[in-house]
Write a structure and sequence with these properties.
It is built from 14 helices and 11 strands. It is of the alpha/beta class. It has 2 domains: 224 residues, Rossmann fold (3-Layer(aba) Sandwich), CATH 3.40.50; 154 residues, Aspartate Aminotransferase, domain 1 (Alpha-Beta Complex). The N terminus is likely disordered.
Length: 415
Amino acid sequence: MNRIITLFCFALATFSGSIAAEPIHLGIDVLEQSGFQAIAGKRVGLLTHPAGVNRRGESSIDVLRRAPNVRLVALFGPEHGIYGNEQANVPIDDRIDPRTGLPVYSLYGQYRKPTPKMLQGLDALVIDLQDVGVRSYTYVSCMRYAMEACFENGVEVVILDRPNPLGGLKVDGPPLDRQWRSYVGAFHVPYVHGLTIAELARMAKHTPGWMETPNQIREQGKLTIVPMRGWRRDMLWPQTGLRWIPTSPFIPDLSAVLGYAMTGLGAQVGGFSHGIGTPYPFRLLRYSGKSPAEVKAALKARRIPGLSYHIVQTQSAAGAPVTGVYVSVVDWQRVRPTELSFHMMQLAAAWSPDGNPFPRARNPDLFNKHVGSTAWWEEISQRGAQARVSGFVRQWSQQAEAFQKQSQRFWIYRN
């Protein structure tokens, strides 16, 4: 255990760089410091979760409740709920919040998109959600659907911006084919998109085809951004000096944030596990029928830039011993976060005892909704262990670079 802590600290130091000299002020901080100017005198709803806090760690719910010139009248919850204690993929019912007495409308239950009744009487919907910088994380989808509903019902949208924990310069992975747009892929962006949640909102509002709302209504919809102060694009989360609050049960820390981008796709089909249920979610790789030494050797042979691998022993949540291969980042500048997942898929095709597992996937549509690339599905399902990973990685890198240039006109922050 001490060895893995040492390895993690080394990787984190490499990943993070120096802490910001000036404190970062989040959107909620800037809103409060302005005297709540953007929502003064308005009846508002708040879409948030436990990571929706100010720089002092106070819930945005409490900040808005005590605002002297704002009337907070309703709460809206994404996947995992406003308190983060709901399981993934489990529908959540509307309820009355026992702590505040406010109605809580679930946007991960009977409805994913706020209904006119939910929005009735609101002047504005404030959105304060911490994203992880990865396309398949559902909070940005929740934001998009909420924006559509608000624009269609004449309700202003106010986005309180937050850092992208992976920074604003790293863009990587396959873009989303239109046919796979879903709640785990609401925007046509590379898998690691390099934008803050407010920048995504701006791009969605001003890019035809990114929302279901008719163009005229989308263009007329009112979107107000409350930006951060002090954040730069080259900042990763540790450089902000802010405390990470788990955004979902399996993303307890920064290690899991980065791991989600690196291994989340690679363990969906084929037999790899990636540490869920251990102290190292999305970082600890195992494959049934292969020893940790064999897994490590196979990964090292791929020579994936910026990564190293270490065999570690730990315990599952139930106390059972677990030995796996921990993935460390040793050079963030060289890492293409999603590359590892596609090598995992190719290895899974090579190691499967009964042949290529991808054509037999129980839910290929869900896999494709996450990955987003029909061309890759055809490649891995038809060629299996012979899939041309390096060619796809090069192509996606070129497409990611083109996307980043396209997105720059929506950037709020520079270096």
